Amino acid sequence: DADVTQTPRNRITKTGKRIMLECSQTKGHDRMYWYRQDPGLGLQLIYYSFDVKDINKGEISDGYSVSRQAQAKFSLSLESAIPNQTALYFCATSDSGVDGYTFGSGTRLTVV
Amino acid sequence: EDQVTQSPEALRLQEGESSSLNCSYTVSGLRGLFWYRQDPGKGPEFLFTLYSAGEEKEKERLKATLTKKESFLHITAPKPEDSATYLCAVQANNAGNMLTFGGGTRLMVKP
User: Fold this and answer.
1) Which residues of A touch B (CB under 8 A)?
2) Low-confidence ranges of chain B (pLDDT < 50)
3) 3-class DSSP state for residue A37?
């Protein structure tokens, strides 16, 4: 099993719909992140959580919300999806040290 | 504000043709610089962390180096399986362990 699992892998949804992307990890890390990737723009941070009771906005949080249900689970919601939220979404985890992140395989979201 | 710029955006090489990818950065006190490899449709995969100027790390055909302003990812005698997007990210001393990513370099190695 993958260390970081994202579901669904692909999703097509209509404008205005609410959608949830899920992430679970088996690394035992406290810190979890949601990133968005658009072609040529690298990875942009949406939200991050350093523990179950700590949720923080990233650089592009408008239109998104998150829930940290447990140490191992971190969900991202699009309240009312719009076409410019079409992108690849990645969940990542890390420990508290200076180590690289572990990424999931991503969710490709298309809003039509 | 921390910034990371990668160049070139795309690079085409013949198999065996060595080259380098560049990552220029500005950060208020560097805690670490990270290189990742990303294959199409997959999440980034961690390659290296560099902590201080002058440091070098190697893995198979890849070698990463670091100066006070930039990092290079040298690819020696690349093979088609090295084709991927390579991402650079920096972590600042005052940013917890948050990463700022560059836009990536898409490498294509032709047989």
Assistant:
1) 4, 31, 40-45, 48, 50, 90, 92, 94, 96-106, 108
2) none
3) strand
B32 touches B88 (CB < 8 A) = no
CB contact under 8 A, A97 and B99: no
- Nearest CB among B44, B97, B99 relative to A96 is that of B97
What are the backbone angles phi and psi of residue B82, rounded to the nearest 5°? -80, -5
Of the partner residues A90, A98, A108, the one whose CB lies closest to the CB of residue B91 = A98
Instruction: Give the model's pLDDT for residue A98.
Output: 63
A1-36 pLDDT tens trace: 679 999 999 999 999 999 999 999 999 999 999 999
- In sequence order, the β-bridge partners of residue B30 are B92
Q: Which of A43, A98, A104 sits opposite B101 (nearest CB)?
A: A43
Contact (Cβ atoms closer than 8 angstroms) between residue B34 and residue B88: yes
Among the listed residues B22, B16, B21, B42, the one whose alpha carbon sits nearest the alpha carbon of residue B110? B16
